[in-house]
Amino acid sequence: LLPLLLLLLLAGLGLGLGLGLGLGVQPEPVAPSGAQCLEHDCFGIFWATRPFAEASAACEKGGGHLMTVRSTVAEDAIALLLQNRSGRLWLGLRLPQPCTEPEQNLRGFQWVTGDRSTDYVNWAPSGRRCGERCVTVSRELSWEERRCDAPADGFLCEYNYEGSCSRLPPSEGLSVTYITPFGARGGDFQVVPPGSRAVVPALGLELRCDDEEESEGSRWSRGTPGAWPCLLANGGCEGSCGEEGGRPRCSCPDGKVLSPDGRACGSPCAGAPCQHHCVVADGSFVCMCDSGYRLGADGSSCEDDDDCAVVPRLCEQECVNTEGGFECRCHRGYEMVEGHCQPVSRCSETSSCEQLCEDVPGGYRCVCMPGYTVHPLDPSRCQLHCNSSQCPAQCNPYSQSCECPEGFLLDEVSGSQPLCHDIDECSMDHCDHDCTNYPGGYKCHCHDGYLPLDKNRCVKITTPSPEEDEKEEYSGDSGPGTQTPIPSRIPPTAEQLHPGAVVGIAVGALSAALAVLALGYHLAKKRCRPPTTMDYKCSSPHEKEMGLQPVTSGCAA
């Protein structure tokens, strides 16, 4: 028996030496002696003698850092944690420079979070000091500088979280113990951070504070679906909790259904496979699609509709189907203007118009502004125009000069607007016969029996004598020939002929007519003894038609 006890003693000593020398065995993390939690922050106090570096590492191992005291709220938390216990505790302040600066707010120190912001300081009196310095807090809550490698009586840790769970509502006969992620245990927490556990020994129940992404908060839950006993926190039900068959069960209000965890209530559309939209209907859901899509055969997916095929004449010219819609396009030579296809304007491309341009089928034409008309020789230019006997003159305000249309005279009267007055060309005896004046010009007219020779002069129309028109003409010597009427002569227009040419043509035509008539008369006399009867039909005073009427001839065949 004695040798066995000696072996056990030696083994215990070896294990103790191994722990003391750190030979491959890590000590258990230090548990906080106390903790306080606010909505998003928890603070823990650790009464363990450590230098600054080891204290900082212990806080980080629990998911936090040495405490930053930036306001009186943090100071009050320290007072509650100390509970009048004496000792110096490390704070999260360290000097990153060779010496302190007593005149500065933080004396040159920096928080372990890497910043220097604070609304609160409580320094103990101290002068300028150099070397590696860190800060502790005492029972009097004053801040003291000390060497970082010197151990302090303990340290304060700070833990930050996105949310928190409120303590479970008290229930008669039920005690709850909360265990935080950083190792604090107790039943007096008002809030606890996510990841904390609540142990209820009387019910054999353990709950967990979990983050809820959908509700953007934290809530108590457990791994097993369904309600726990209703007397504790309503069984975890979001709706109502009741007994059914001796077991707790959650139920939800109308329009909502139980979530997969059997406790939360959600919309029937939560988790629905609808590709586009989900609509609640009679406690269930119906999938719907965006405009331009139709519901697939599976009742949840959406398929594109060919709008161009479904709706006839959806576009003016061309319709192109797109995913979930359509696009109207125009034929070549057209462009989309405010939702309509319009011919591409030739004016903007090739127009050389002086003033305005107007698109016409196949091209464009130039138009002029009021007071102007298209130039007769150059359709791209405009000239002044007045359609009355008197119009305002067109004046240039910069050069102080005015101008009038052709055929008008400028009348500048001092103190009044310059006017353009029509020139009465008819009073100037430009025309041989009659004259009509109009704004900007005039027109000559010829008397009956005359044709215009040019713009101003007239020429008399020459007419052949009746004797010459009544001559007959026969062809051949054997019997009556084919009658050929002499064509009427239409006088040429004066614009086409020179005066001398008109006279020469008239004389030549008259000579030719006389020669033809003489020849015809000679042949008729030789061929037939009875004379030939002629009828004349006059179609106008200046023009005659001559028709030949044959008579019975006594000549032998």
Automatic annotation (TrEMBL):
Looking up InterPro entries in the UniProt record yields: C-type_lectin-like, C-type_lectin-like/link_sf, C-type_lectin_domain, CTDL_fold, EGF, EGF-like_Ca-bd_dom, EGF-like_CS, EGF-type_Asp/Asn_hydroxyl_site
Q: Which GO terms describe its cellular component?
A: cytoplasm; membrane
| Any one GO BP annotation for this protein | positive regulation of axonogenesis
Q: What is its main location?
A: membrane
Q: What membrane topology term does the record carry?
A: Single-pass type I membrane protein
Give the residue spans that cross the bilayer.
Answer: 501-524
Record's keyword terms, sorted: Disulfide bond, EGF-like domain, Glycoprotein, Lectin, Membrane, Phosphoprotein, Proteoglycan, Repeat, Signal, Transmembrane, Transmembrane helix
Where are the residues of the annotated region Disordered?
461-486, 534-557
Q: Name one GO molecular function term.
A: transmembrane signaling receptor activity
Q: Where does this one sit in the cell?
A: Membrane
Q: Where is the C-type lectin domain?
A: 38-149
Where the record annotates domain EGF-like, the positions are 304-342, 422-459
Q: Does the keyword Repeat apply?
A: yes
- Quaternary structure? Interacts with ITGAL, ITGAM and ITGB2. Interacts with thrombin/F2; this interaction switches the specificity of thrombin from a procoagulant to an anticoagulant and antifibrinolytic protease. Interacts with ANGP1 and ANGP2; these interactions significantly inhibit the generation of activated PC and TAFIa/CPB2 by the thrombin/thrombomodulin complex. Interacts with PF4; this interaction enhances generation of activated protein C. Interacts with HMGB1; this interaction inhibits HMGB1 inflammatory activity.
Q: What does this protein do?
A: Endothelial cell receptor that plays a critical role in regulating several physiological processes including hemostasis, coagulation, fibrinolysis, inflammation, and angiogenesis. Acts as a cofactor for thrombin activation of protein C/PROC on the surface of vascular endothelial cells leading to initiation of the activated protein C anticoagulant pathway. Also accelerates the activation of the plasma carboxypeptidase B2/CPB2, which catalyzes removal of C-terminal basic amino acids from its substrates including kinins or anaphylatoxins leading to fibrinolysis inhibition.
| Protein name according to UniProt | Thrombomodulin
The source organism is Urocolius indicus
